[in-house]
Design brief:
mainly beta, globular, 6-stranded mixed β-sheet, single chain
Length: 114
């Protein structure tokens, strides 16, 4: 079973930036894309960005032009560069396949607040 470890979250002011990292215990990117998800308090977990083995990317409308998903060359890491952060981006961020196939990691908390 693949283990996923997310990191890089923190407290940032509106307009700030963060870079999240996801490290997998083995090579990922088999058939399904990898994605970054987020879950805000009281809301369902949502997919915000995904990337295929060939580096084809997709974003939900609310993060387009602000977030950038990328992957490492060894295909066991995924990154999410988040710019122009807004308070509504506050959530716990997770990585997983799209659709999710692995056990969820602990996530990394992102808080956008002044």
């Amino acid at each position: 079973q693949v283990q996923l470890v997310e990191s890089g979250g923190g407290l940032v002011q509106p307009g700030g930036s963060l870079r999240l990292s996801c490290a997998a215990s083995r090579t990922i990117f088999s058939i399904n894309p990898m994605g970054w998800y987020r879950q805000a308090p009281g809301k369902q977990r949502e997919l915000v960005a995904s990337i295929t083995r060939e580096r084809v990317t997709n974003y939900t409308d609310s993060v387009k032009d602000r977030f950038t998903i990328s992957r490492g060359n060894l295909m066991n890491t995924v990154y999410l560069q988040m710019n122009s952060l807004k308070p509504e981006d506050t959530a716990v961020y997770y990585c997983n396949e799209d659709p999710p196939q692995f056990r969820w990691g602990q996530g990394t908390q992102v808080t956008v607040s002044s």
